[in-house]
Structures are given as structure tokens and as C-alpha cells.
Write a structure and sequence with these properties.
two-stranded parallel sheet, 12 helices, seven-stranded parallel sheet, globular, about 325 residues, alpha/beta
Amino acid sequence: MTDHQAEDHGSGGIASDGVHVVVGAGPIGLGIAKHLTASENTVRVITLSGETRGLPASVRTAKADASDPRVLAKACQGAAVIYFAAAPPYHRWADELPAMQEGAIQAAAETGAVLVVAENLYGYGTAGTLHETHPLQPNSQKGSIRAQMSARLFGAHRASEIRAVSGRASDFFGPGVRRSQLGAQVWPNLVTGKSVWRLGDPDATHTFTYAPDFSRALVRLGAESSAWGRAWHVPSPPDVTLRQALNKAADIAAVKPPSIRKIPRLLLRAAGLIFPLAAELPEVAYQFDNPFVMDWKDYRSAFGDQATSWDTALKATLSWWEKELRS
């Protein structure tokens, strides 16, 4: 590790000294880039394709394979903070995701940048109320991958190879979010009056995370040296059932509440023979069959940040989808 340090210069919890490198340009990566550029930081976004769609004009882009440590380290030169927010489709996690994070770890070690990783809750392997100190006891392949990656990340931190921190979110939603339990299979149907087909019990309490809140929290965690060395649950609006969330959205959109239909497990398994993504869903169904609540009191106590309200988040999400459907 070098002596280069990311510092908080009073810019709303953003480390502004040096380049901020975002690996991945999905909804979370794009959100990180937009949040950083709003505070006039120098931002570089790295993707496999080098695409620039949706990025602010001031953002620099680079093309690199995150799973190649040498290539990624070169693309990250000059970084003060590296945000790892990339993820392949579910069915390619085992083959690709750990190698991608390892590339980010090596890039952070070479550049001396703080490494901020976007994580989820799969590693806990249980439903119920999940606290930030809950042990990682995965019960699925994807959960095992996440737990192993988190262990590697913080093992590298404890060994002083890098300085690392992670933010964990529940199922996220928001403008531009397609692959989610509140994504492309929900909003177009809701605004056009069609039934919504979903996994699990629509009346089980669940935490959903608004994607811009997730991005903002990751930036905050990278800037706060007191946060480094552990995982944090990020701010999320109050827990609701899927039915409550969709009924509230229907009120905002001035449409009838949607009919919610449960996807049969056998149908998912059959569909998985043709669509690999469908085959990956049954092992995480426990998160939707039971109450699944993410407690983020540690983050709230440490940083005082608040989550965006459901009304504001849903209005922004519906507005984005309505524009998308008209285009």
C-alpha cells in the first residue's frame, strides 16, 4: 500500500483529492458517478465496453476487463478511491464476480486507493431482521460467493494490503434499475394495468433500497476513514410489503392497484432450461417467502444520513419508466 490517502475536504462527505474511479456502469455505478460530479470531482468510469451512455459529460471513461488485475490497475492509476460496483448476470457470478473483485483489490493495492465495494445481503443466508453485525452463514451458491468475497475483502484490509469498506443494500429500485424485484417486470405492467408476477409472498415485510441512496452511501463510506474496515447497511426507506409498495405506486401513477400473482417454482425451473437467469431465482426465494428486514441503525448513528422517502423515490422511479415506455 502506498501513502496516498483519500481525505474528506468538507464536500458533503466526498473525498475530493485525486481521481474517483468507478468500476461498473450499472444503476449504482452511474449513481456514484453522478453524485461525485455534482460536487465537481474528477471521475473515471471503467467498463468492459468503455461505454458512455447515461454518464455526465465531464466523466472520463476507460475500457478494461476488471478480472485482469494488471489491466485494471493501469486503468485505475491516480485513483484516490475505487468504487467496485460491477456485477455480471446471476448465472455468471461463480465464473466472473470473484475475479472481478480480485482485480479491484489488486488495483487498490497498487494505487493506494481506498476500495469501496457494493454488496448485498445474500451472504447472511437467512431471513428475518438482519443487523450489520449479523454473521455470514450462506445457504446458497450466490450467498457463498458473496460471503467468500467479503471475507477476502476484509482479510486484505486487516492484512494492510488495502483500505477497504463495503456498503450492503437490500433489493434496490429506482430510475434505470431493471434487474430487480422492483424492476422491469413490475413497473411497465403496473402503469399499463397488467398483472404483476412476482417471486414469494407479496404480504411479507421486506426492505427495499432506493438506488440513489445506495450510491450516495458508498461515496460517503469511501470518504470517512472511521468507516473503513467493515460492512455497513445503507439507508433504506421504511420496510413494507410488496403489495404496500405497489399500491402506493399505483396511487402516485393514478392507476388501479395491480393484481399480484406468484410465480410457481416449477415454472421458474422449467423456464431456467431456456433462460439461465430464471434458474438462479429459486435459491434466493427465502428472502421473499418470509419477512426480510435490513436494519441500518449503525450507519444512521455514525453518519446521520436519511433515506429518501417512499413517495419521492416512487415518483422518480415511475417518471423514469413512463419516459422509457414512451421512447
